[in-house]
Amino acid sequence: MINSPSKTSFLLLAATAAFFAVSSQSAESKGLGYSNTPIIPGTQWHVHDGDRPQPRLVQPGETFSHMAPAPADAIVLFDGKDLSKWSDGSGGAAKWKIQDGFMEVAPKTGSIQTRERFDDFQLHIEFATPAKVDGNSQGRGNSGILMNGIYEVQVLDSYHNPTYPDGQAGALYGQTPPLVNASKAPGTWQTYDIIWENPRWDDAGKIVKKAAVTVIHNGVVLHHRREYIGHTPHQAVGNYNKPHESTAFIQLQDHNNPMRFRNIWLRKLGSYDHPTESH
Ligand code: MG
After folding, report:
1. 253 CA → ligand 1 middle, Å
2. 176 Cα: distance to centroid of ligand 1 (angstroms)
3. Cβ 173 vs Cβ 154: under 8 Å
4. Which residue of 2, 74, 161, 222 has the fewest CB atoms within a 10 Å radius of its CB?
5. Residue 177 burial (CB < 10 Å; 0-12/13-18/19+)?
6. 70 alpha carbon to ligand 1 midpoint, in Å?
């Protein structure tokens, strides 16, 4: 059956309307991120793609590992009293503030990092984004936990704060959004329990074991032994082109937001059938 002119016009109009609806929606969500960045290998998404699906929201339980006491074989990196285990980027004293059992980023004093390097480890760390909401997207409650200073697990205020999914709280920055968004409200203490495996190269400089991470946020799994594609630069795809030691220091990022951290401890994982090597 041939469509009548009026029916054809209607269909055309409907199709045109649908096209513009999709286009404007697409343009809006692009506002969250970037569309001119490289495609992330193994995905259909650009680095920081605003159109990538937003992880679903999960309200975490009230507490999980909050103020969890360190196990006997843990290295306590911060007990609320001093920053002796931390330095600035060049080995000098860390300049962040300490008060009431937590440390707070002193914006523009720079990121801080552990003085020690570690084999594969289990890390417990707690953070709070500023109670007074200031800014949005990547400008709100931004910090980061960067293994070796180059493999970031994002720290961000992702409580009703849309941003590109591979940059929200718990993302492997620029690579893998968290499975879900388990963020708590601004000013509330939150926990990350992280299991980290260092990357390794052979003697010829070829990567033979990629960095991998497991992240539990407020008792909710965000990643389960997820591999990094490489280091985590902004707006670019990372790689493993620069072999480094198979140990890592831990860096906490100064991203100009007065983020707070407390109760930080770490256990070396050791390996199976080697009961004495983990100390
Ligand atoms: Mg960050």
Report:
1. 6
2. 14
3. yes
4. 2
5. buried
6. 26
CA of 169 to the centre of ligand 1 (A): 9
| C-alpha of residue 61 to centroid of ligand 1, in Å | 25
Q: How far, in Å, CA of 97 to CA of 83, rounded?
A: 9
pLDDT tens profile 47-82: 999 999 999 999 999 999 999 999 999 999 999 999
pLDDT in tens, 74-127: 999 999 999 999 999 999 999 999 999 999 999 999 999 999 999 999 999 999
Taking the centre of ligand 1 as the mean of its atom positions, its distance from the CA of residue 110, in whole angstroms, is 13
8 C-alpha to ligand 1 centroid (Å)? 52
Residues 233 and 235: their CA atoms lie apart, in Å, by: 6
> Measured over all CA atoms, what is the biggest interatomic distance in the chain, rounded to whole angstroms?
84
Domain boundaries, the chain: 1-30, 35-268
Cα of 241 vs centre of ligand 1, distance in Å, is: 22
Domain 35-268: CATH architecture, name and number where available: Sandwich (2.60)
> What would the two tokens of residue 143 be?
């910090």
